[in-house]
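Quick one, tokens below:
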């Protein structure tokens, strides 16, 4: 069985649109004072792994129940495409055209690790904070004029431009039902949600990447989405990309003892390639402590250094799976699939680099949207990869030096356990307000200090 979980894989998180008048519910105790009417409605967008994924044919929850994940062995699904697990198909071009039948349903407001026994709160605290003010939670796919708080489920595996386009459609629907094309929303974006929100702010619902040769040919942002955003809160957003994304592609993602999301799953997700960092100057460090320059957007780098699926041990395991499942076709099938994997990863890396180059054109001085940065600066956070040349002459690139009951990294710096604080600093210079504290990435939306900052700024009238 394919194993995975949300609990410690909280890459990217949540967006919220705060709207219209909310009044405290009678008899409900809350830490927040009564609020005057908000300037705009409220949307919540989850981040990486923050939306439940369901197979509508079998009704199986493929993502959304820890220790009860009804996915398939990723090798089996890649060899026999009639199966449908957490991994996406890889054969269509452009790569964003790859679709399976899984559909995003609800946000993981809480996460039941063991049914009826252990429950982990994810976004519930933030949603409750708005609910205590009397905000009306609506269905973003069927919104009404009386709704002022929305959740935005989307498929976090897929292309992030697609996520931004869908966000734009939902905002347009809110404007339409309120008969106000100039109505603005407030976005509270946790982690990956912030990346989607920024792209929408800069380019609206346009795909400015498809068909572009390189970064020099990208258009300048027109900030068409910014015209629809009143306030933007960025909670632990990977504004400079994520080292954890490279780790997930290279090593898979450890969740808890005996539960790991395989690299055979993560490599099929276009979203991960789109949050790889452009700046890799100090990303790889040799045994002498010297940085090693590698172009992680070049497929030849992946093949030369055995990154991800091209690791010798990992590839041997795949060949064995081929021999077990389809013994008569095993050698030919393994060779053909290796070429398929190479082509897909190369396409993912190219589009990922263009996406990051498009985001790098952000100029906060050109938008009127108020924006707020919330960042953690205390917890050890992945800050580099060990680059070691083995006696055999082969190279080993790893983030993790030991797995027992938790992950231990070779190189760390201060951050929120997912996003480095130093990567947030450049974004802070132009922010309307900054909250810096010992905030952990995955629990940030439920932190009382974070909620109080959000509520206080939503009360401020323009």
């Amino acid at each position: 069985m394919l194993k995975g979980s949300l609990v410690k894989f909280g890459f990217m998180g949540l967006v919220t649109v705060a709207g219209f008048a909310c009044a405290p519910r009678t008899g409900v105790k809350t830490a927040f004072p009564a609020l005057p009417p908000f300037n705009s409605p409220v949307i919540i967008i989850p981040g990486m792994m923050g939306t439940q994924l369901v197979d509508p044919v079998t009704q199986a929850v493929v993502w959304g129940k820890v220790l009860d994940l009804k996915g398939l062995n990723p090798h089996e699904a890649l060899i026999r495409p009639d199966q449908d697990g957490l991994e996406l198909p890889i054969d269509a071009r452009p790569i964003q055209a790859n679709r399976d039948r899984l559909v995003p349903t609800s946000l993981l407001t809480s996460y039941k690790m063991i049914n009826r026994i252990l429950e982990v709160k994810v976004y519930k605290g933030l949603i409750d904070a708005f609910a205590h003010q009397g905000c009306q939670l609506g269905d973003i796919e069927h919104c009404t004029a009386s709704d002022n708080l929305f959740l935005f489920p989307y498929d976090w595996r897929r292309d992030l431009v697609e996520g931004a386009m869908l966000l734009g459609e939902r905002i347009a629907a809110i404007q339409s039902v309120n008969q106000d094309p100039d109505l603005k929303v407030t976005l509270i974006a946790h982690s990956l949600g912030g990346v989607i929100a920024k792209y929408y702010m800069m380019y609206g619902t346009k795909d400015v990447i498809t068909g572009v040769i390189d970064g020099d040919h990208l258009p300048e942002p027109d900030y068409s989405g910014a015209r629809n955003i009143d306030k933007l809160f960025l909670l632990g957003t990977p504004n400079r990309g994520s080292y954890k994304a490279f780790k997930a592609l290279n090593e898979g993602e450890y969740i808890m003892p005996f539960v790991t999301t395989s690299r055979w799953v993560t490599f099929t997700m276009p979203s991960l390639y789109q949050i790889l960092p452009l700046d890799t100057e100090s990303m790889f460090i040799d045994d002498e402590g010297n940085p090693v320059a590698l172009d992680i957007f070049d497929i030849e780098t992946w093949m030369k250094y055995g990154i991800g699926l091209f690791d010798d041990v990992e590839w041997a395991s795949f060949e064995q799976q081929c021999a077990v499942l389809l013994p008569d076709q095993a050698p030919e099938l393994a060779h053909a699939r290796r070429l398929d994997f190479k082509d897909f990863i190369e396409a993912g890396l190219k589009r990922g680099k263009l996406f990051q180059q498009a985001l790098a054109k952000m100029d906060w001085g050109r938008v009127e949207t108020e924006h707020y940065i919330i960042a953690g600066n205390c917890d050890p956070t992945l800050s580099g990869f060990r680059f070691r040349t083995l006696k055999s002459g082969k190279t080993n690139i790893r983030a993790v030096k030991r797995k027992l009951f938790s992950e231990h990294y070779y190189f760390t710096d201060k951050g929120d356990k997912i996003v480095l604080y130093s990567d947030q600093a450049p974004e802070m210079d132009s922010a309307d307000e900054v909250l810096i504290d010992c905030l952990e990435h995955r629990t940030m939306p439920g932190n009382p200090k974070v909620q109080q900052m959000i509520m206080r700024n939503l009360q401020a009238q323009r």
